[in-house]
Amino acid sequence: xxxxxLSPKMLGYWTRDQLHDAPDESGIYCVFRAAKDPxxxxxxxxxxxxxxxxxxxxxxxxxxxxxxxxxxxxxxxxEVWYAVGLAGHANRExxxxxxxxxxxxRFNNHSEYxxxxxxxxxxxxxxxxxxxxxSIFTVERQD
Length: 143
Prior knowledge:
- The longest helix has 15 residues.
- A five-stranded mixed β-sheet has the order 4-3-5-2-7. It has a three-stranded mixed β-sheet with strand order 1-6-8, with helices on one face.
- Helix content is about 20%, strand content about 35%.
C-alpha cells in the first residue's frame, strides 16, 4: 500500500488571451466557466469544466483540441478561465486522475478516471485559487 498526499497550489486564473502568462512547468490544469456573480457583479468561477495534465501545463492548455467545445458551451457574457497546479512528472497523472474522479467535470466524460482510480489511496489538499474545487478529498483505488 502506498498512500499518498498530493498538495498542489492552484495558480491562475487566466483567460485564453492571457495563457502566455501561465507557468511553463509540469502540472495539471483546470478549465472553468466564469460568469458574473449576481451579488458582486464581478466575474468569478462558476463551474469546473475539465481537468488535464501535461509536462508543460501552459502548452497543454494553449494547444488543447477542445477550446471550441468549451467556448460553445458558454452563455452570453461568460468566459473560459484556466488555472494550473504544479506537479512533478511522477505525480501528475495520479493528481489529474484524483481530480477527475472526485469532481467529475462535464468535459471529462470520456476519461478512464471518471469512474475508476487505478492508484493507491490518494489524499489531495488543494490550496491557492481553488474556487469550485474540493479543498481536501481522498480517492480510494477503484479498479
